[in-house]
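User: I'm writing a short report section on ligand binding and want a predicted complex to refer to. Could you take this sequence and adenosine-5'-diphosphate and write out the structure as tokens? A short remark afterwards would be nice.
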Amino acid sequence: MSKRIKIILVGITEFTTAFALLFAGIIFYQVYEKQIYEDLKLMASLIEEMNYLEVVENNSGNLPGKNLRISIISEDGVVIYDNHVLKEQMDNHKDREEIIETIAVGEGSGHRKSKTIGSRSYYYAKKMEDGNIIRIAKEVSTIGHIFYQFCPLIICLVLILVIICLVVAQYFTKKLLEPINHMANHLEDNHLGIYPELLPFMNRIRTQHADILKSARMRQDFTANVSHELKTPLTSISGYSELIESGMATDDDIQHFAKEIHKNSTRLLTLINDIIRLSELDATDGQGSFELLNLYELTKTCVESLQLNAEKHGVTIDFMGEDCKINGSREMVEELVYNLCDNAIRYNKVNGEVHVTVGKKGKRVILAVSDTGIGIPREHQERIFERFYRVDKSRSKRTGGTGLGLAIVKHIVSQLDAEISLDSEFGKGTKIEVTF
Ligand code: ADP
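Assistant: Sure. The structure tokens for the complex follow:
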């Protein structure tokens, strides 16, 4: 970045310098040209005022005007006097542009390479009172020639400018980048000096940084929780199988131990399934294959499949609603409905009720699962969607919970672009609503 800024700064300076030089050169040359014509005009007037014919006819020396070429030309283009070339050697000048102009309008000017003397000259011609034309010419350097003459000076000037530019660019680049370097090393510092424009950028980095730290901490917690959750049933399985292996257990014990081993391995399987499901949801974030689903039919089937489970818990479950279509992945929506209804059954009281409804609210579709169960104390309500968070750990484990059900629900809700709300009163019941 610093290299780029330097190149840009030097480039801009060099370009403007070159442009300024060129512009100044053109202006200078125009002023120079104008001045030449003014001088030639003045000289022509001076000669006209003096008795020039005497000098010309008597051949008595030269007309004034050092370094100037003076020609007197008759109306028909014949050169009658020239201070540089013998008039006999000169051809008719009627075709010269300044003469043509002078014959037409009384005076004329032009510049070209002289046919007679070969160098580049500026011409000014004027018709005098006696009808003759006086033409004054001055040999001048071309702009290229002037440039060539000044070339060493221009090169020196450009070199000095390049050096100055480099030093200034170095200084300014350093000054320009200082706050950015400072920011990179002191993300927590709010006093950014001269760049308040960097604040939003910095805030974004800070938020991202905090998010990264948070997700790293969550992953760490999750790994620790998973290890702990896996360890408990595995320890039981290992302990009971060791007792059976030692041969000290009676037939009754063996049956009891086998039951415990079966219970714990089922628990392990459920846990592993939930963990796999969560990581699958993490991996397919927003990329599930969506289709148009009839939420009413889907929920009805799910509720029916849970009837037996509800009976086992001494709970009644009912369902009502209307045909509602939503866009989503069948597997995900089934899982969502199942988890919510399963919780409503497991965290219920004997003779409790679960009511499941599907309906429309304006353009949106709502799935509501309410129960008359144990409810969730207010202080826990915020956290129940966290992974492995349980209000009553022993009840959760006893009923086959893993602490991951609502975490999976939350994940699915976010993937379906839906919203979830919880309304619960401790001891009275819970209502969870998902708005699609
Ligand atoms: P679990 O597998 O333990 O049920 P969840 O993630 O499904 O885990 O739920 C987290 C916790 O939220 C549960 O342990 C329970 O304490 C509480 N909970 C969830 N649903 C209900 C409900 N309908 N009524 C009362 N408590 C609930």
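A remark for your report: The longest strand covers residues 353-361. The chain has a mean pLDDT of 87.
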